Amino acid sequence: MNILLDYLRTALAFMVIITVLVAVHELGHFWFARMLGMKVEAFAVMMGGLRRTRLDHRLKEPLVSGTIVCLVVGILAGMVTMSGIAGWATGFQVSLFGLAILAPLWIASRLQALYHLANYGAYQILMKSWIGGAVLLGFSTRFKGVGLENVLGILFFSSLVGLLLIYYQPVLQKEDDAPMGKGSLPTEDGGTEPVNFRPLLARKDRHGTEFSLLLLPLGGFASIKGMHPKEDGSETQIEGGFYSKSPFARFLVLFAGPLFSILLGIVFLTGYFVVRGTPTELSRIGQMEATSPASKAGLKRGDLVTQVQGQPVKTWMDMVKVVRDRGGVPTQFVINRDGQSLNFTITPKLDEEPMPVLDDKGEPTEEKRKQGRIGARRDEDPMAFGPAFTRACQAPIAMVAGLAGVIAKPSTAKDSVGGPATIVQTTHEASEGGIIALVGLAGLMSISLGVMNLLPIPPLDGGQIVVAITEMLRGGRRLSIGVQRTVQTLGFFMVLGLMVLMIALDIGRSVGRN
Length: 514
Description:
- This protein is of the alpha+beta class.
- The protein has helices spanning about 1-35, 65-85, 90-115, 120-140, 150-165, 170, 245-275, 295, 315-325, 385-410, 415, 420-430, 435-455, 460-475, 480-510; strands at about 40-45, 50, 180-185, 190-200, 200-205, 210-215, 215-225, 280, 285-290, 305-310, 310, 330-335, 340-345, 350, 355-360, 365-370, 370-375, 375-380, 380.
- The two termini are about 20 Å apart.
């Protein structure tokens, strides 16, 4: 039960952090668009609405109640969780097969019956999702060390993507300027039938902006009127439209999102440094996971390590140098706790794969090897507001430098970047340290969101900023529709490639950890 609650805590923390960070990012776009006279049609927290149009009349035969479907899926999810916790491999595999394959097929059959997609389109989408997941698994691991659980896990997440694509088919093909959530489905007589998807909660203000809470914790958006280029250039004539304003005004609106993300990150990190501070040079124990060797041996936060295997230590790196070569070997620790000298025996856990070796300053070197770890982080010393704010303001610069380093040396990406799974894992580790640790993580993630969105790649803010700057240099003249579409297409595939790379790195790490 504790493990299950731990998972739920991590999931909740992850969803709250992502939702808040994206909402603040989009708030930057929203406020600046309003100030510069643009009409914001919608401001949404999270993504994806619920289908509000009943389609029972399209059924040739009645379907099993949706409540029963949810109950069966819930039972399978519970079986996966409990058998995984209990270590029952057969039960885990069987229930995961049902959750990853059988249940999605059942749900896809229901949507196919409702939507009447041509050529059994629901099954095609689901199959393509499975194939894409399998290709991604092969690309990231070359199928080395891949077990049945890995395959079923990838198929499960592929099924989630496929089912979302099927569910939102009525709105995925809508016109660019069609109202949000308005879609349609073909009828048997060759016509179309309107289908509406609505938020969980929504209201409009006096300016006509709909503020809404959507369904999926995947971000959010601010929809500004007239953001889609037209063949005839008429987007520049839309009253209150995005392209009806000057390139400089568009630059400000686009830049506001990343700016708000970076400023929020600085605020969060300043608070974190004031409360927690920065890592101390002393060999003082800080945060530990409950399952770590140090925690199991009885060490507590604030313990000062004075000796390791008979060798005196004064700094954290003194301790690391002794511990890292003793993976799997019981090691004697002498610690000072409230003035008392206590002895502990800790068996460091050996890394499952080679990791960078740290130098005397704690910086990673080119050397890699499997190292012993006791599962504890160095303690931290609180900072005054001034130094904390200065340190927080340095974080965006350090992040840009780190990103430039990865671009200059792509081989380092394997150890320094990650996708959604890495973020979830990091959130789990931070949640062990309480709310303050999560605030520090949220600060770093917010700055990362701002910096990444400034990359000069459409459809990211940075790519559109480049277009706005180009038009400023052209005296305000719009780029041709052909150039715009070419840039958007290239940018789309570059972003897609980055996403695939991040997910592939996540899969490789996951399989490597078995």
